[in-house]
Predict the structure of PEP-CTERM putative exosortase interaction domain-containing protein.
Amino acid sequence: MKLRSVLVSTLGVAALAQFASPVGAVSLINENFDTVSTGFKSASSSVGSFFTVDSGNVEVIGPGFADFYPGNGNYVDLNGIASGTLTSSIFNLNAGSTLSFDFAKNLDGGTFVPIANIFFGGTQIGSVNGGDSFSTFNYVFNTAASGELVISSGNTGPYGVVIDNVNLATAVPEPSEIPGMLLFAGGAFMLRRKYLAKKAK
C-alpha cells in the first residue's frame, strides 16, 4: 500500500515538473546591427538597441566600410583600435532559454585567429575562435539565470572576432497546456487524499 501512496505523490510531482517545462520562447534580444552607423564606437556608446560598449572600443563594419562579408549587412568587430566589450541590460531567463549569434573574424588580420569570450550573469558560458567565414554559436541555459549578456574580445590589437545576428530568447511554458497540467496534479492529490482517509478508518 505504501507503494501506491508514493506513486500517487510522484504523479503530482511529475505534473508540476511538466508545468515548469519550457516549450515556448520569448525573444529578448534580436540584433543584426543593420541600423547602426558604421565606424568605431568608443566606451559608453550604444551599439544597436541592446548593447553598449562597456570597455575599449569596437568597429561596426558593413556595406561601403571594410565589408569583408558582402551580403550580411552590418556586423561588429569586437576589436576597434583595441579590444572591446559589448554588454546588454539585465535579463531574467528561465531554464531552457537559448542564445545564438554568428561569428567570423576581421580578415585584415591575415592568419591571426582572434578570440571572443561570452558571459552571462558574471559566468563564462563559452568562447569562440573567429574563422574566415561565418559560423554560429549556440548555447542552452539548463537552469534559470539572471544578469547581463557580455561578449568580449579575448585578444589585443585591431583585429578581432566579428559578430552578427545575436538572439537571446527566454523559455516559457505553453499557456494552453497549463489547465491540463493543473487538473492532472489536482487529480493525483485527490487520489492520495482518498487513500489516506480510507487507511485511517
Q: What stands out?
A: DSSP finds two helices and 13 strands in the chain. The first strand starts at residue 24 and ends at 31. The CA atoms of residues 189 and 197 lie 12 Å apart. The mean pLDDT is 85.
